[in-house]
Amino acid sequence: MSGLQIDKLSMRFDLPNGSSVQALKDVSLDLKAGELLSVLGPSGCGKTTLLNIVAGFLAPTAGTITLNGHKVTGPAAERGMVFQQGALFEWMSVRENVGFGPSMKGMPKAEKAKIVDHLLDVVGLQDFKEKAVYELSGGMQQRVALARCLANEPDVILMDEPLGALDALTREKMQGLVLKLWKETGKTIILITHSVEEALLLGERLIVMAPRPGRIHTEYRLPFAEMGVGQDLREVKKHPKFGETREEILGMIWDMEEEIMGRTEDA
Amino acid sequence: MALLGDLWGEFWAVLTTLFAAAPYIIGYILIILLMMVIWNGVKRLLTPKHDYSSLKTVTFGDESAVTSNTVASVVSIVLIFVLWGAFTGSKLLPGFMHAPGPFQGEGSFEYTITTPAGDSDTATVSVVVHPTGEDVAAPEVAPGDGIAKNDAIAIPVYRSELLRVDSNDEMGRDEETFITAVDGQAIAPGGSVDVSFGRVAMSDKGTLNIIPATGMQMEPIWLPSPEAVWSRLGDIATVGYRNSTLAEHLGYSLFRVIVGFLLGALVGIPLGYAMGLSNWFRGWFDPIVEFMRPVPPLALIPLVIIWAGIGEVGKIILLFLAALWIMAIAARSGVSGVRISKVHAAYSLGASKWQIMRYVIIPNSLPEIFTGARVAMGVCWGTVVAAELVAAEKGAGMMIMVASKFQSTDIVLMGIILIGIIGFSIDMLMRQAEKWLVPWKGKG
Fold it and tell me: What is the ipTM of this complex?
């Protein structure tokens, strides 16, 4: 069985003061190979917890995750992760960062160099190959992070707000790059974001999560990612359905936030 | 309550000294301001700079607009040497820059005695003030006429001498004949009279105390001149001091520091890593490290001497202990400071635990370890000098301690300057090494 199956995942952990938090409750999701899923939700809805469980950094209290037929129990190279920022190794050059995964596997140098060169071409950083990563701008650093993840040939790429720290213009360019990489490599991607627009643009499927307990609230299937591959993303945003869906989701999240605020006031 | 009273007395003594020093401190500040005004004048005559900083209109309160002025640094250092030279009569400075020196050469004064009958007579005392260490005899003088006879005396500079000028007179104390005036000015026991070369005072018993002027310069025993220190440096470098040459003294001190520090790092860094990576080790060593860290290494000297004696082993144990806790804490915080996203990223790129250690945790902790090493080297250098002050057969600290017991102030000064230069060089080297080896410091 190929693809990623998330089956009745629950996460509940105890707090030091004796109470406990239900971060996720009965989250189930079936992702086919090559699908692009974006995850939206107000803060505290458990989306980062979900991603950390899929990555294998956390063990769920109930439920299973199955990738290509075997159960996920810990981090592994088959599930690559791209972080918001600060996850590059600043003691390594751009080339060494991108080649980190292959190096860990003990891949021969020549083969590794070929992969690294190819990926640096793809993300447009060939000229910065020998630079230290801290000499690059934020957008360039995220390109390195993407390339580093791809160099390892993972089956699934998990992105935890990878563009969250970038300025609006860079972010738009990077959204285009993510779409291009998705189409070219055919990887399964789960992308967490705070931006509704980004979720719409980059989600072939989109789930909106609700807090307390963290659960899937609504799921969409969207045409915009497919449209965006060959097109200017700004044109996609002008699509009437794009605006419509955006307003719908914003309203949904707005209501959730209101509910949280109300509850806090009651308590 | 007695303690409080004593402390108040001590505090008052400190305040009094401070008040006495105030004019000099104010004078120094005025020199600083004067130099600033002069430099600002000179700068206006030079081609104006138009870099980003000099075009700022708001500079007061803008921390980034304040950079160390090189000219001020140079002037301040030069001034220290000028003041040093001026108040020690250095030959490196032209004479007019010297502070008034002590009186040297020949002088004389007259004294008058009065007999019980009311007669009086006057005689001359010739005084020769000669440099310290030279053997100069008092000049031969003719006794002269009258009941008071002429006298002569030789005095080394900075010293004063009691002289019974009336001992060769025809009538003295035993005949109720007393000295009543010096240079025509009346004098009584306990009083004094200014004379051409200094001062003449009279003791309670009526003996004259001849005090040549000492000027404003420092006696070499308090503060030797720069060239004296320099020439002593040459002596000690070639001939040596206390059976060891200068290179041996400094070499031993450095050897102790380097060996002690390396051993401390060799044990402290793995200890810090263990504390940063394992709950059990952190729990085990936290109380020990947290207790030992605030204990000044100097406080361990007596114990180390009891246990290991004053030889190299004792010194190295002491420096090992000085470096150990600092390095352990630096390594621990280096490990704890690794961003979890870096570790997560490495795991999801397929790294094993050992690879995480080698490629993520160690490089990530190096900047912290280097900072710790700089601190540890500084502490070790200070500790070794102090330990050698207490007891050692060789070493920079031992050299200045022994020299101070023989009042060889020039060696003490030279030693302090060398210790300072070495400490400064160690810090500079560590900073350079940091720049070369961990260029990513602070860039995460």
Answer: 0.90
